[in-house]
């Protein structure tokens, strides 16, 4: 009798544990299945692979994005609203209230040349990770990716793309996105205060489209706010201007990123 009670208790504990881990999206990774879509953003693809966003990658609403970014990486509601406005602008259907990850690949809406891990639209699809492009990017990073090495990789990719793509172009918005993407990935995967991150975490996420929990990464405890994003983007922009002091962004001056954030997609 006692043995039977013990065995049923043990079975219940195992079932509860299985339930706990089965419900944990950080543990629940599945790549896309037939019919699912993914896009040019390694992070949003990753969140869909974990189920923080619809696994199909389709019909993502404001609520889906806000909940997903909050639960996956502790983004506050303002940044999510800001990013949703950009994202929904890529849906070819006017006045839509959702977007799908592959909409983000529409060239020169948000998607830009000189990506860190994708070929330019002239050469192929931005939805697909490209190892050669990413190998060039990571060859400029040390063991720790910081503002200096992050910007070195950006500038190197720009030079390569410019010399190999006869239709190469970057809009002001594209340039701001490039800098924001680097500010964001360092801050989210590493330390948002020192703006540094272990390179292995970044490589893992880009190459597997999976959160690097096996490398010790955890959902940030501090909420990621618009102020943190603007501050870190400005720091990246200052370094970028030092390297390319004749860019449009350089001429626009220190407040560019802030104006962009507060003016939403209405760029000067
Ligand atoms: C945790 C939040 C996010 C992070 C850390 C992040 C980071 C990144 C990074 C690093 C890239 C560059 C990939 C590359 O150059 O190969 C990228 C690309 C992109 N992301 Fe995100 N992203 C985030 C959320 C979003 C959201 C919410 C949107 C919706 C507007 C978005 C839109 C894009 C687009 C359109 C690209 C393609 C840019 C291109 O390379 O042409 N991302 N993102």
Count of separate structural domains: 1
Distance between the termini: 78 Å
Query: Which regions are unreliable across 5 or more consecutive residues at pLDDT < 50?
Result: 13-20, 246-254, 263-268
**Tally of DSSP β-strands:** 4
Q: Give a quick account of the main beta sheet: strands, pairing sense, barrel closure.
A: 2 strands, antiparallel
CATH class bucket: Mainly Alpha
Strand content range: under 5%
Q: What is the approximate shape?
A: globular
Tally of DSSP helical segments: 11
> What is the spatial order of strands in the main beta sheet?
1-2
- Gyration radius, to the nearest Å? 20 Å
SSE string: HHEHHEHEHHEHHHH
Mean pLDDT, nearest integer? 89
Structural class: mainly alpha
Query: Which homologous superfamily in CATH is the superfamily?
Result: Chloroperoxidase-like
**What fold name stands as the CATH topology?**
Chloroperoxidase
Pfam family, one: Peroxidase_2
Protein name: Chloroperoxidase
Cofactor: heme b
GO molecular function, one term: metal ion binding
